Amino acid sequence: MKKLVIALLLLTLSLPCAALAAEKKKNPLAAWQPTFDPSGAEYTYMLSNVSHPVIEGVGVGYRIRDKVWEQSGGRLYVDFRPLSQLGGEKDVISKLKLGAIQGMMSSSVAGANISDRLGIVNLPYIVDTFDKLDAFRNTPETWEPFANGAQKQGLLVADITGYGPYGWATTTPVKTIGDAKGTNFRIAEAPVNTDTYKAWGLKFTVMPWPDVPQALQTGVITGLDHTAIVCNITKKFTIAKSFTELNYAQGLFVHLINKRWLKKLPKDLQEILLTVIAEESAKTRELTREQHNVQVAKAKEAGVQFIKLSDKDIQQLKLEAEPVLKKWGDKIGPDYLATVRQKLGS
Known about the structure:
This protein is about 50% helix and about 20% strand. It is of the alpha/beta class and about 350 residues long.
């Protein structure tokens, strides 16, 4: 009886420890907790994102947090909230405009919901390679109109990071446009994507990202319009085992800041924040190139088939997309679109 009592006592004492350990294990952001105490910060910059920081273009939020804390001497705390902690992108956009939060790393597909001009980076075969993305960001004639494209909404575009080139993850191989005609693609809730897929004459379903896994498993959709980085990291390749490297656009996170809040920040902290965002975003664009190569290699090792459309099929997609470019050129400014195409050779 004495041994039983002791055993029960030990079990009782160990349960809270086990529960705490399990809770810590369940926290997907445990590895990114700050090494400093932010409670003493004079100012807080709450920054939202919907994705996981294992993606380099998302993880930059934590690198910005740490560098700003260091350079501001603990005066400014970047409270980065990935994984939709503050809600979906549409909800967060509303909060950002109102000033309820101060910053957002918005997906490029959602950018056109904020301002037509931000939709230029998601137009087919315009900013479609890593090199063109760097040229777009580093050329004043292409970058400055984009950076000021959400001014009317009270927002400033501070910089951009990415999550790789777009393609088609499919449950059966798509080797030609003919194969694509028989596929039902999930696309994002974004006007540019809708117009593009209509122009291409492809079947598509507009669907929130959380609904994708079940839709793939049940066959509601048979294709996914996304990037290899995201598809591999989020395990979509366990179901969709083929990837057609369409490379029609770069998936981006557009770093937006509420202008009213920024203007109220002391000048020295404004400069620190914007400089750190620019420096860390530039480094992250290079890291994204590397991550793309790594994730493609891992996917291939796991048996995912990577496919390239013929030059003829790519040319057909570009030709069919011209009406989309005309429509969106009228919205974002035909002269600006022409400048971007000329500067990037698109």
